[in-house]
Amino acid sequence: LTEQSTIGLKNGYEHIWKEAQGKATDNNARMTWMGNNKFYTITTVNKVDDEFIFGRLGANDPNFNLRSDPVFIQRRKASETTSFVSVIESHGKYDRVSEIPDNPFSHVKEVTILKDDCDYTVVRIEHTTGSSWILAIANKENDLNKQHKLKIDSEKIKWKGPYQLIKTKI
Q1: Global pTM?
Q2: Which of 2, 20, 103, 139 could link 54 by a cystine bridge, Cβ 3.0 to 4.6 Å?
């Protein structure tokens, strides 16, 4: 950006400096960063034209008591309902002595929303090794003993309780 401005004028956005922004170009966006000598990657499910904003807390703070922490925002406009799904993966490390990264790249191949309605949200997380996981969430029913059954495409999913993480094969 050529000049510093806030993300917005109210609802807390007036306290965030906009540092960079961009739009999604496919169904998954990824960002990798390093902290405490470890690598982290966030993989988000998005729609083309979702907006991503990098910012920094501390704008318009008259008492200078806000920490200058970084902010990452995914924004979707003109949507009555939406689900934001992200997977944050910790991987690898960085040796400051040898200056060599170990395992610096994400192993999440793709994250996909398989079903998303008022009753259920089902997400598939695919790994680069070929394995995958399905996270099934009952959006309305939180009884620990409630049995749930869904059929998504040709796949049958059954679980007990409000959610279940199921390891599958692709």
Answers
A1: 0.85
A2: 20
